[in-house]
């Protein structure tokens, strides 16, 4: 691939991402609903267990698990909309004719990754303040969140393309996505636990698994995008 | 396939008898519980083999768009689920004897349960798409995507956390820790279950093909009737 075509590819991916962001900014309801869901789930968790509702030795594993459960379910309300929105607004055909499926998928995954980071930006400070969450290795936690979120965004975007035209797509998305992202979630929980306890070296194994998952999922999604998105 | 059927009946009978009578129970296990290895592991192997078949035929479908490939892929997933559920049942029996509980969320048994969910979702996905061509294409894409992520579920996730599960055949030492009779029955069972899967797959594929022909025939008669009326 020449430098010019690489730049052109990046520009087209960015155009899809910017289009989705512009649409969401025009009608903020969907994004705000996702962020509101995250905040509500966080408030509910905080109300149920509070900062001192758990024994100190039980806190790190439970907090790590709750953190990713909230992130996953908040993401599951917003990320599948990537392709559903195109079908609902009747713009899917135009997008299909304009760009190759792989670039559409990449642009939408990039937008979804941004949305995931926005959810994490709401959940992380909330966890720190409301649940007295102590993170011994913040950089490691950031690496786990970014790598876990990237994989979650890619898989969710790809599955959104598969389920966008199916019946009962909202229920179907969760049914299809949960078993596929569970290895990622389990590994991310393990990495988050290591980060909260301060063992940056303990987090290295989960981080490597997350990076491998991200790479494999991205390559598979890229190779299958055309078949998933064709009419 | 008739020859395979005729071969499998005596062969599997001998394997089942040998599994109970020939090798001595392994050390470190309660009573005769270690004999479950001759059924549990072949079920898990056959289930994985079925999912690999589904992926191979899904790839073939995407390349050639032949509905027969899609039918074989769907049949392989159904059989994979059947053997996957048998894996869970036999594993649960072993757990009840060894650990005193039918289910304890051990990473390895949980990951296998999720593998069953992963392919149950394939069937849900198929059921949710009415158009046959789109259903076949989307199901093929999902089967390929799932098979690529399957190793994370089966091989990686259980190894990130501690497990009570006995050492697997694929172990860190890279050796098969079995005596000769155990090894003979074990590999015999693997071959027998694989043969059973191939025979069942041929039956499922034939049934699906006959159903499609009957459906196409009905559609043909209906459209011919419509043409006559107009």
Describe the largest sheet of chain B. Answer: none
Mean pLDDT of chain A: 85
Task: Tell me the total number of β-strands of chain A.
Answer: 0
Helix content of chain A: over 70%
Estimated radius of gyration of chain A: 18 Å
Helix vs. strand class of chain A: mainly alpha
Task: Report the major sheet of chain A.
Answer: none
Low-confidence spans of chain B: pLDDT under 50, at least 5 residues?
none
Span between termini of chain A: 28 Å
* Number of discrete helical segments of chain B: 6
Number of helices of chain A: 9
- The H/E string of chain B reads HHHHHH
**Would you identify the regions of chain A where 5 or more consecutive residues have pLDDT less than 50?**
none
Total domain modules of chain A = 1
The number of domains of chain B is: 1
Instruction: Determine Rg of chain B (CA atoms, Å).
Output: 21 Å
Main interface pair?
Answer: A-B, 34 and 29 residues
Helix content bin of chain B:
over 70%
Topology (SSEs and partners):
The complex is a heterodimer of chains A (231) and B (230).
Chain A: H1 3-26, H2 29-49, H3 59-78, H4 81-89, H5 92-98, H6 101-130, H7 138-163, H8 169-197, H9 200-229
Helix pairs in contact in A: 1-6, 2-3, 2-6, 3-6, 3-8, 4-7, 6-7, 6-9, 7-8, 7-9, 8-9
Chain B: H1 2-21, H2 37-64, H3 67-98, H4 107-127, H5 132-160, H6 180-229
Architecture overview:
The complex is a heterodimer of chains A (231) and B (230). Chain A is built from nine helices and no strands. Chain A is an all-alpha fold and 231 residues long. Chain A has one domain. The model of chain A has no long low-confidence stretch (mean pLDDT 85). By secondary structure, chain B is an all-alpha fold. Chain B has one domain (34-162, 179-223). In chain B, helix 4 (107-127) runs antiparallel to helix 5. Chain B is globular. The termini of chain B are far apart. The chains are: A mainly alpha (231), B mainly alpha (230). At the A-B interface, helix 7, helix 8 and helix 9 of A face helix 4 and helix 5 of B.
């Amino acid at each position: 691939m020449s430098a010019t075509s690489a730049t052109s590819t990046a520009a087209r991916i960015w155009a899809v991402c910017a289009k989705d962001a512009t649409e969401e900014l025009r009608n903020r309801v969907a994004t705000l609903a996702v962020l509101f869901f995250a905040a509500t789930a966080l408030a509910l968790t905080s109300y149920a267990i509070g900062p001192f509702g758990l024994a100190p030795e039980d806190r790190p594993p439970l907090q790590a698990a709750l953190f990713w459960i909230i992130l996953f379910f908040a993401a599951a309300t917003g990320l599948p909309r990537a392709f559903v929105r195109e079908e609902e607004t009747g713009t899917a055909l135009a997008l299909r004719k304009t760009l190759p499926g792989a670039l559409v998928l990449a642009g939408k995954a990039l937008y979804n990754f941004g949305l995931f980071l926005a959810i994490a930006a709401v959940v992380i400070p909330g966890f720190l303040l409301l649940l007295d969450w102590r993170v011994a290795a913040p950089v490691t936690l950031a690496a786990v969140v970014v790598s876990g979120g990237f994989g979650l965004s890619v898989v969710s975007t790809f599955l959104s393309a598969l389920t966008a035209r199916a019946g009962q797509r909202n229920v179907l998305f969760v049914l299809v996505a949960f078993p596929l992202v569970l290895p990622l979630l389990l590994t991310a929980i393990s990495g988050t636990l290591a980060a909260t306890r301060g063992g940056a070296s303990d987090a290295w194994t989960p981080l490597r698994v997350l990076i491998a998952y991200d790479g494999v999922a991205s390559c598979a999604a890229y190779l299958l995008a055309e078949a998933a998105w064709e009419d | 396939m008739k020859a395979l059927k005729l071969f499998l009946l005596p062969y599997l009978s001998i394997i089942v008898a040998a599994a109970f009578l020939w090798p001595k129970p392994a050390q470190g296990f309660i009573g005769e519980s270690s004999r479950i290895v001759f059924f549990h592991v072949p079920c898990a192997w056959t289930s994985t083999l079925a999912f690999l078949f589904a992926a191979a035929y899904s790839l073939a479908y995407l390349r050639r768009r032949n509905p027969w490939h899609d039918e074989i892929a769907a049949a392989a997933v159904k059989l994979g689920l059947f053997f996957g559920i048998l894996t869970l049942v036999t594993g649960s029996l072993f757990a009840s004897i060894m650990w005193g509980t039918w289910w304890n969320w051990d990473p390895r048994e949980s990951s296998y349960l999720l593998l069953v969910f992963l392919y149950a979702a394939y069937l849900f996905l198929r059921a949710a798409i009415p158009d046959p061509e789109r259903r076949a294409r989307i199901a093929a894409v999902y089967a390929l995507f799932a098979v690529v992520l399957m190793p994370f579920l089966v091989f990686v996730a259980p190894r990130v956390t501690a497990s009570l599960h006995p050492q697997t055949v694929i172990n860190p030492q890279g050796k098969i820790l079995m005596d000769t009779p155990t090894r003979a029955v074990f590999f015999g069972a693997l071959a027998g279950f694989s043969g059973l899967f191939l025979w069942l797959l041929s039956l499922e594929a034939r049934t699906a093909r006959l159903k499609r022909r009957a459906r196409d025939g009905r559609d043909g008669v209906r459209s011919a009737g419509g043409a006559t009326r107009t």
